[in-house]
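Sanity check. The docking grid for FE2/S2 (inorganic) cluster depends on where the pocket ends up, so I'm generating a full predicted complex first rather than guessing from homology. Inputs follow.
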Amino acid sequence: MKNDLPLISFTAIDNGYYSYIKVKHGSYPNLMFLLKEELGLDSFGECGGVGRCATCVIRTKGISGVSAIKERNEPNTLEQLGYDEEIIRLSCQLFVTTDLEGSAITVLEE
Ligand code: FES
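Predicted complex below; grid placement will be based on this.
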C-alpha cells in the first residue's frame, strides 16, 4: 500500500539555498521531477529524463546505494560537460528511493 512506503528526508541545495525535503519512496518517476517541483526549477530537465539535455546535473553527497536508472546516455552527456567524478550525476537517472535518506543534493546545471 502506498501509505506504507517509507518517508525519505534529504537536503537539496540550489544557488546557496538549502531546502529540507521529505518525500515518500517512489513518489516521483525520478529525482529530476522531484527537484524541479520542490525547488521551482523552470528550465530543469528539458529532455524529460532521457539523459541528453544536461539540464539536470547534480552533485551527490551521502547517497547510500545505487538505485539508478540504467540509461546509456548519462556517461556520454556528463563527459561532454567535462564531468568525470562519480558524485556528479544526472538527476533524471536516479530513482527516488531510501538511498537518498540523509544525503545532500546540489543543483549544478539547470
Ligand atoms: S532531464 Fe535531460 S539529461 Fe536529465
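Relevant for the grid: The beta strands are 7-14, 17-24, 57-61, 88-90, 104-107.
Also worth noting: The pocket of FE2/S2 (inorganic) cluster is lined by residues 32, 45-47, 49, 51-56, 77, 90, 92 (CB under 6 Å).
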